[in-house]
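If you are new to this repository, start here. Below is one unmodified record pulled from the training split, so you can see the exact layout before writing a loader.
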Amino acid sequence: MTNLTFQQIIPTPHTNTTNANTASSSSTPLPRSSHGLSIIHNGTLLVLYGGEHIARTPIHNPSQVLWLAKRMTGTESWQWIVPTTTNAAITPPSRVAHAQAAVGNTIYIFGGRNGIEMGENAMNDMWMLTVHNETTTTTTTITAKWTQINASSSNDTPSVLPEARSFHKMIAIGSNLYMFGGCGAASGRLNDLWKFDTLTHKWTNLGVSHVLRGRGGPNILSLAHDKKIGIVGGFAGEETNDGH
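And here is the target side for that same chain:
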């Protein structure tokens, strides 16, 4: 039997005395939901992006949209860090309920919506965030750069791309991203599976599930040493506990 131990992480507030990055209007992130969270740099850096602080309203404040939590060297302590954005003029539109996954130290986000209603301003854009971490004995400087990806389909037909959606899920396996379901802008709840190749920037439609109804908020996980993908639960008009 495997014993699991949960440990709450409570990062200390961001301060400029230990961080060379640009000051923020706040020292900690706002409480939020429908955001993305990824871990990179060998488990030493958490990347928090997007979400809603007021119900169904994307966080628009630039100083609150993107946060990092850094594990301090040689300790179990974490600290909130405000990254320096190297191309501040090029950033994704604010959003809630996007999908987010990491390939190596690069974060990818896809879709979500920046309107209040479920089908309002849904998106199907793909962005990547590269994070560089430079630490000296006295300062930590973390820079972040956003790049929008001009994706195409695997048969080079730009129109054959995933429908704009929110509340979908995405997982990284090797250099590929796998994205399932969500709430589509045109088709309602979705049960389709897509693959995105981060090397070629091409989407491949892997079809729909013949077992699962369309749904938002499912869990997607890698199984059998990355040879299979599992889908569990989600909201399909009611809460579900099925899987495929």
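Two things worth knowing about this chain: Residues 17-24 have pLDDT under 50 and may be disordered. The two ends are 26 Å apart (CA to CA).
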